[in-house]
Amino acid sequence: MMCDSIQDSKQTFAENIDGDDVSIAVTDPLMGTTAVHGQTNRRPKAYAGEYIPCPWDAITSPLLRYNTACLVPNDYPALSSDRYSYQSLLLDDLYPIESALGVCYVVIYSEDHEKHWLTLSKEERENVVHLWAESTRMIRKNKKLRYTHIFENDGPINTMTHPHGQQYAFVSVPLYIQDELRRCMLFYKYRKQNLFQKIQEVEMRNKKRIIIENESWFAYAPPGARWPFQVRILPKRSVLWLDMLTDRELSDLAESLTMIRHVYARYFSHSYRPTIMMNIFQSPCDRSYLKYQRYYRMRVEFFVTALSSNAEKLMFSIENSTGYSLYSQTPEETASILRSLLMKREVTENTNRNKLYKKCCTKEEYYEK
Ligand SMILES: [Zn+2]
To answer: Which residues have CB less than 5 Å away from ligand 1 (the ion)?
Structure first.
């Protein structure tokens, strides 16, 4: 079946499935990249100085709750539910198009609109980490879902200022994850060792790239990183999913995330604030536990869109065209800079979002509109 345009394809999908909130995924046959056209861009946006309604100040019926943290559906999801499943087709007899299926959730960290990860209490942060484990367990039980990604984008371009992160669940394993699984599998095949175990041995022996360490986790600046100031947090035990972690490991994870976010807040305390992307990578959700256990592990990655406190640099031409990231700071220097900031006093004024963003209106104001 052929379609005339992406918009026509969306309409064709919608007519066939009785709904216009369908998302489609289109693939570039040259670069292999896939773009998802969903409802994301219909969401309300607040630019500097504008107010935006906040629907998250008093959640009454969340999908999941762990004390002060809760999981709710994303009202403007990038992916559509599986009732919109539709066969693949070619746009203009060339571009592969299919339904972009999956589930998008919002993870609400607290009812308090004014808070930020760094101003939550220790207990509140641990509630969020426990909730991630519960939501991962829930998604893994759904046989249609193959992969889940938990993340938070924190920076001046955020449109919703309420303390929150997100969780996506996909019906297939995303491209980058497939690529790294392949590399881990090949490492296991040729070196007869789990790549994560090998990294742990190398980094714990070398020490120069280690930033923090506790009983369950260690964080280091990875050589060859794509992003300047990239930090990777690895579990010391071979764990594939958050719901396999013990209470102690979950608590230690919350502490590790907080320490890394504190050093970023201390380092990027000047007027230019980068976006900090926290990403939790886990194993695919299928039942091949023993297979993945041999060559994979879960982890956290922080990506930061800045080169240093006095040089602003994002991903530009060479980085995006070739995969080579050009910056002179070595991972040993990155680790040294971040380690030196561990002991400094907390810089809470940089984490007060309302100095940077306007307040959302209240839930009552939202529903009056
Ligand atoms: Zn709010």
So the answer is: 54, 56-57, 113, 162, 360
pTM here is: 0.88
Class of domain 2-8+19-39+48-173: alpha beta
Residue whose token pair is 């008093």: 58
Distance 187 CA to ligand 1 centre (A): 45
Sheet with strand 102-108: strands edge to edge: 64-66, 69-73, 102-108, 164-170, 147-154, 276-281, 299-304, 231-235, 217-220, 210-213
Spatial distance between the Cα atoms of 305 and 229, rounded to a whole number of angstroms: 8
Residue 299 pLDDT exceeds 70: yes
Cα 64 to ligand 1 centre (Å) = 18
Ligand 1 center from residue 274 Cα (angstroms): 22
Compute the chain's Rg from CA coordinates: 21
Residue 52 CA to ligand 1 centre (angstroms) = 10
Q: Which two tokens stand for residue 349?
A: 């004024």
The tens digit of pLDDT for each residue in 206-242 reads: 999 999 999 999 999 999 999 889 999 999 999 999 9
- d(CA 357, ligand 1 centre) in Å: 12
pLDDT tens sequence across 140-173:
999 999 999 999 999 877 767 899 999 999 999 9
Query: How far apart are the CA of 231 and the centre of ligand 1, in A?
Result: 29
List, for residues 14-72, the tens digit of each pLDDT value.
Answer: 555 445 578 889 999 999 999 998 776 667 666 656 667 788 998 999 999 999 999 99
Architecture of domain 180-355: 2-Layer Sandwich (3.30)
Rounded CA-CA distance 121/110 in Å is 10
Residue with tokens 């991972």: 331
d(CA 116, ligand 1 centre) in Å:
11
How many angstroms does the Cα of residue 322 sit away from the middle of ligand 1?
Answer: 40
59 CA to middle of ligand 1, Å? Answer: 10
For residue 37, which of 48, 26, 28, 27 has the smallest C-alpha distance? 26
Residues of the chain with CATH 3.30.428.10: 2-8+19-39+48-173, 180-355
